[in-house]
Every structure is written in structure tokens, then in C-alpha cells.
Design goal:
alpha/beta; Rossmann fold; Dehydroquinate synthase-like, alpha domain; 16 helices
């Protein structure tokens, strides 16, 4: 008998304009006396996305305040500041709005409001996160990270070093997915956040920890991403395509909750730390640059992924994904300037740093020191 564990899923609601019902969902979750702190990406206010959500919460009779003092790579100090604001208003619900930065921060705030230690105490699982006693609702404004469904957050030290945080308290109670919130996302970000979702699902389906009971979740994410990403980029107002990409992100997030990622995310996180390359682009570049090496670890699984994308064998993924990028007006390789500014030795060193090594270990093929150096070189020369 095969033994397995499928992580608990948050409740998920998918509907155009679902964000307008946020107040009712707060009521359903905490009752009539909601004291809500909205934790949001700062760019959303000028775009006019926050006021309608805030008004919907207030119209339902709840107290609501806003925290948006975040950077694109959120800092531990920002988490701690938001926790203090939540404690000061005796919040019983955190509503996270945004991409990975806003949602990762909101999840940490919800977990730490009743805890006694600062964010830094929980880096890389050094201490177990406190049991979460307040509600957590997530509203993604990008279709990529899947943070709205995962029990993980990525938060940076104030010196820029990124760390993972994980545990059941980070799993939201409700992922409220409104594709209308993603309509204004520019083509570059639509494509590369979507590629992040696709890489999540591919790595979950092919890494060393993949298992049959999770395959359907990962494959659902793959299908949704490949069927909808091109349309979402080329037809930005297409709500059906935007909905499909939100499902791809959510299922990709659910899949990696069960299996973790692999070498593409290992390298992608290292690239992001060294050269501030956007995450979705970094993992996409790394996936294809290392594909020929990685496939040898689980060729059958990669063949299956290629089949889902219309190919017949694993290495067809190279042309399939490069073709998708070309049709969307993007490229899946580093620029000459980026190659010149990234030292291959530093990249290899970051790949085996504490914050990244688990993703390398999850890869279906074992990597020794020579392999790590070779993978870093592959990424910079592809």
C-alpha cells in the first residue's frame, strides 16, 4: 500500500468581481465584528484596486485598516511593523491583497499576531510558527506564485538575504480569486508570473517527491497554464483566460505544497538574490537551461509533461516553451548584460546556500559539486 499525505487546501472561490464580496466573506469567516487589517502591495493603491475592497469590508460593518509599507521583496521589518499594527487594533482577520510580496507578508502577519517573537526567529524553520488564531483571506492580483494557497512565505532580511518560512499557520482559510484584479497586469508580468505557475506545476510533477495522488493536481495546473497563458498575454481583457491562469497558479501552489519545487527554483532564487532578476523569468530561464540534465532524473515524468503540452518526448519542452515565449513577445534566456554581471562561482555558491539547498535536493537527479558548477554555467551560457 502506498502511503501519502495531501496538504489541506484552503477554501477557494473563483469568480469575476468576487473581490466586491470580500466584506461578506469576512462576515462568514469571523462573524459580524470583524477587525480587519488589509496587507497590500503598495502599487495597488494608485491603480484603484484597494479602495473597492476596503469599502466592501467597511460596508459589511467591519473595522478595516491598511498596511502597505512593503518592498517588492518584503522585509522582516515590514512584517514586524504590520504585526504591531494588527495587535494595536486587536485584529481578528488579515486580508492579503497583491502578488507574492503582499500575500507572503499577510500570511506571516496572520501567523505572528498572537506570537511573542519577531519574524526573524522563524527563518528556515528554526522555530515552529505559532498556532494561528485569527482568520486569513488572500486575494491575488497576479496569477503566478500560488501564494494564495500555499503554507510558505519568502521574506528578506534587511540586508536583502531571502529566507523561507513555512508551516500550517501560513495556509489561508480562503483564497478569493477574482480574475478582474489581474486585467491591468502588463504583458511582461502576465507572461512571467504565468510561467512561474507553469514551472511550479512542472517541477511538482517531475521532482523526486512526486507521487500519483498529487499528479492530478500538478497536471491540472499544467493544463490550465498552457491553455490560457498566451491568450492572457495577447488578449489582456479576456476574463476566461485570466481565470484559467488564476486556476493554474492556485493548482501549482497546491501541488508544490505537497512536493516542493526543484532545480529551476533553486537556481531562480539564487539569480533573484544576485541580480534581482524577476522570479518568474529567473525560474523559466533556469528550467530550460538545465532541462537536458534534469530530464535524466525522471524521463518518464518529463515525457508526460511534454505530452500534456502537445509534444511526444521530454526534450520537446525546449521548443514548446521557447515557442510560447516568442508568440508572447518574450525570451527565455538571460541578456548579455546579465551574463556579464553574474559570477558563475557566486551563483553556484548560492545554489547550495541554506535557503536554497532543499530545492536542489528535491530534484529527481542527484547533483554533486561538479554538477552544481555545471548547472550554474548552463544557466549563464544558455
Amino acid at each position: 500500500m502506498t502511503t501519502f499525505t495531501l496538504a489541506k487546501h484552503p477554501a477557494m472561490i473563483m469568480a469575476a468581481n468576487a473581490a466586491q464580496q470580500t466584506g461578506q466573506h469576512v462576515s462568514d469567516t469571523v462573524g459580524p465584528d470583524g477587525r480587519v487589517l488589509m496587507v497590500c502591495d503598495p502599487a495597488l493603491g494608485p491603480l484603484g484596486l484597494l479602495d473597492p475592497i476596503r469599502e466592501a469590508i467597511s460596508a459589511a460593518g467591519h473595522t478595516v485598516a491598511l498596511f502597505d509599507d512593503l518592498k517588492s521583496d518584503p522585509l522582516e521589518s515590514s512584517v514586524d511593523a504590520a504585526v504591531e499594527q494588527a495587535r494595536g487594533m486587536d485584529a481578528n482577520c488579515i486580508v492579503g491583497v497583491g502578488g507574492g510580496s503582499g500575500l507572503d507578508t499577510a500570511k506571516m502577519v496572520a501567523a505572528l499576531v498572537d506570537g511573542g517573537k519577531p519574524c526573524a526567529a522563524y527563518r528556515l524553520g528554526q522555530e515552529q510558527l505559532p498556532f494561528r488564531r485569527i482568520a486569513l483571506i488572500t486575494l491575488p492580483t497576479t496569477a503566478g506564485t500560488g501564494s494564495e494557497t500555499t503554507p510558505t512565505s519568502i521574506i528578506s532580511q534587511d540586508d536583502g538575504v531571502k529566507n523561507w518560512f513555512w508551516g500550517p499557520p501560513l495556509k489561508p482559510d480562503l483564497a478569493l480569486m477574482d480574475p478582474a484584479l489581474t486585467v491591468g497586469l502588463p504583458p511582461f508580468w502576465t507572461f512571467f508570473t504565468g510561467m512561474d505557475a507553469l514551472v511550479h506545476a512542472i517541477e511538482s510533477r517531475t521532482n523526486r517527491y512526486c507521487y500519483a495522488e498529487n499528479h492530478d493536481i500538478a497536471e491540472t495546473g499544467i493544463r490550465h497554464a498552457f491553455a490560457n497563458l498566451e491568450r492572457a498575454v495577447l488578449e489582456p481583457d479576456n476574463i476566461e483566460a485570466r481565470s484559467g491562469m488564476m486556476l493554474a497558479a492556485a493548482y501549482g501552489g497546491l501541488a508544490i505544497s505537497n512536493t516542493g519545487c526543484a532545480v529551476a527554483h533553486n537556481i531562480g532564487h539564487a539569480l533573484g538574490s544576485i541580480a534581482a532578476i524577476p522570479h518568474g523569468r529567473a525560474v523559466s530561464v533556469a528550467l530550460l537551461a538545465t532541462l537536458e540534465w534534469t530530464v535524466e532524473g525522471n524521463r518518464e515524468a518529463f515525457d508526460r509533461v511534454a505530452h500534456l503540452l502537445g509534444g511526444s518526448k521530454a526534450m520537446d519542452l525546449f521548443d514548446i516553451l521557447h515557442g510560447l515565449a516568442e508568440r508572447c513577445g518574450q525570451t527565455l534566456s538571460l541578456t548579455d548584460e546579465e551574463r556579464e554581471t553574474i559570477d558563475v562561482g557566486i551563483l553556484a555558491s548560492d545554489m547550495v546556500a541554506d535557503a536554497n539547498i532543499a530545492m536542489l535536493d528535491a530534484t529527481a537527479r542527484d547533483a554533486n559539486n561538479d554538477d552544481v558548477a555545471a548547472l550554474a554555467k548552463m544557466t549563464l551560457t544558455a
